[in-house]
UniProtKB/TrEMBL annotation:
SUPFAM superfamilies: NAD(P)-binding Rossmann-fold domains. It comes from Mycena pura. GO terms for molecular function: oxidoreductase activity. InterPro entries: NAD(P)-bd_dom_sf, SDR_fam, Sec_Metab_Biosynth_SDR. The keyword NADP applies. The keyword Membrane applies. Gene3D superfamilies: NAD(P)-binding Rossmann-like Domain. Belongs to the short-chain dehydrogenases/reductases (SDR) family. CDD domains: SDR_c (cd05233). This is NAD(P)-binding protein. Keywords: Membrane, NADP, Oxidoreductase, Transmembrane, Transmembrane helix. The chain crosses the membrane at residues 12-32, 149-168. PANTHER family: 7-ALPHA-HYDROXYSTEROID DEHYDROGENASE, SHORT CHAIN DEHYDROGENASE_REDUCTASE FAMILY (AFU_ORTHOLOGUE AFUA_7G04540).
Length: 306
C-alpha cells in the first residue's frame, strides 16, 4: 500500500511557515492551533499583543507537558494591524528576515460593523412602511462605519496578500514536495453568500466582496505564473468573539439569523474549521484554486443564497 496516500503524507504540514491574522481568538485561534498541532510554524498576529502572548504561552506549556512534536512546530505572537500598510510591511520584513519564505497565509481578521437590530422584527416601528424603513436604515449607519468594515474585512485581504506574495511564491519554488504550492486562505462568511442581511448590510456585502476578491486574485496570479493558490472558507455559526464566544445549541439560530434554522442544529467546531484549512494548506489541497468552501452546517442549503 502506497505511503503517499497516508494521512501523514497527504496532510503533512511539517516544515511549513504560516501566518494567521486575527489569530488570538475565535476562528483565527482555531486555525492557528490546528496548523501548529499538525507541524507548522505559525506566526499569529493581531492588534492586542497581550492576547497573542497568552495564547503562545499556553501552547508552550502544553507542548512541554506532552510528547515532543516537530521542532519547528510552534506559535509565535506578532503584533500587526491589518489596516495599516506600515504595520503590514514591518511584519513582512520580520518574516523575510527570520524565514525567507512563507507557505500559508490565512486572512482571518475581521469585525461585524454597524447593526440594524430592528430588521429582525417586522412589527418594529422602523419597519412600518418603506419611507420609515429607509429613513431608519439611513439614520442608523454612517459612511465611516461602512468604510471601517470594508477596510478590515475586504481591503486588508488585498494589502496583506500582495505584501506577502513574493514570500509565498518563494515558499512554493523552494519546496521539496512535488506539486506543492503555497496557499492564501481568506476567511469570508456564509453571510457573504446568503441574500438576507442578518441585520448588517455592511458586513454581509463586505464579505461578499472578499469572496469575489479571492476569485480575482486566484485568476490574476495564475495567469501571471505566480505559484500561489488563493481560496476562501465561508464559515457558518462558530464560537468566536463576534458571536459572543460559547454558543449553546438553542442559541445557534439566533446567531445565524436566517429565514430557516441551521440543519446541523449546532455551532461548528474547531476541528471542522481547522480541518478545512489544513486541507487547503497541505499537499491534499494543492489542486484547489480560486474556490470558496462553505462550512456552515447546511445553512445556505435552506436559506436564499447566490
Amino acid at each position: 500500500m502506497s505511503t503517499s496516500l497516508s494521512l501523514r503524507s497527504i496532510y503533512d504540514l511539517n516544515g511549513l511557515v504560516a501566518l494567521v491574522t486575527g489569530g488570538g481568538t475565535g476562528i483565527g485561534l482555531m486555525i492557528a492551533q490546528g496548523l501548529a498541532a499538525n507541524g507548522a510554524k505559525v506566526y499569529i498576529t493581531g492588534r492586542r499583543k497581550a492576547v497573542l502572548d497568552k495564547v503562545v504561552d499556553a501552547w508552550d506549556q502544553e507542548k512541554a507537558a506532552s510528547s515532543p512534536r516537530d521542532a519547528d512546530s510552534c506559535g509565535i505572537s506578532v503584533q500587526m494591524d491589518v489596516t495599516s500598510r506600515e504595520s503590514i510591511l514591518e511584519v513582512k520584513k520580520l518574516i523575510q528576515d527570520k524565514e525567507g519564505k512563507l507557505h500559508i497565509l490565512v486572512n482571518n481578521a475581521g469585525q461585524v460593523g454597524p447593526v440594524s437590530t430592528f430588521l429582525r422584527d417586522p412589527t418594529a416601528p422602523e419597519c412600518k412602511d418603506p419611507e420609515t424603513l429607509g429613513q431608519a436604515l439611513f439614520d442608523n449607519e454612517t459612511f465611516g462605519e461602512w468604510s471601517d468594515i470594508y477596510t478590515i474585512n475586504t481591503f486588508s485581504i488585498f494589502f496583506v496578500t500582495t505584501a506577502f506574495l513574493g514570500l509565498l511564491d518563494k515558499g512554493s519554488r523552494e519546496s521539496q514536495t512535488p506539486g506543492f504550492t503555497s496557499s492564501v486562505i481568506n476567511i469570508t462568511s456564509m453571510s457573504g453568500v446568503i441574500k438576507v442581511a442578518q441585520e448588517h448590510f455592511g458586513y454581509n456585502s463586505a464579505k461578499a466582496a472578499a469572496s469575489h476578491l479571492t476569485r480575482m486574485m486566484a485568476t490574476e496570479f495564475a495567469i501571471r505564473g505566480v505559484q500561489v493558490r488563493v481560496n476562501s472558507i465561508a464559515p457558518g455559526v462558530y464560537e468566536s468573539q463576534l458571536t459572543h464566544d460559547v454558543i449553546p445549541p438553542e442559541m445557534v439560530d439566533k446567531v445565524g439569523k436566517g429565514l430557516m434554522p441551521v440543519p446541523a442544529k449546532r455551532a461548528g467546531t474547531a476541528q471542522e474549521m481547522a480541518g478545512t484549512v489544513i486541507y487547503l494548506a497541505s499537499p491534499a489541497g494543492c489542486y484547489t484554486n480560486g474556490q470558496e468552501i462553505v462550512v456552515d452546517g447546511g445553512f445556505i442549503a435552506v436559506n436564499p443564497s447566490v
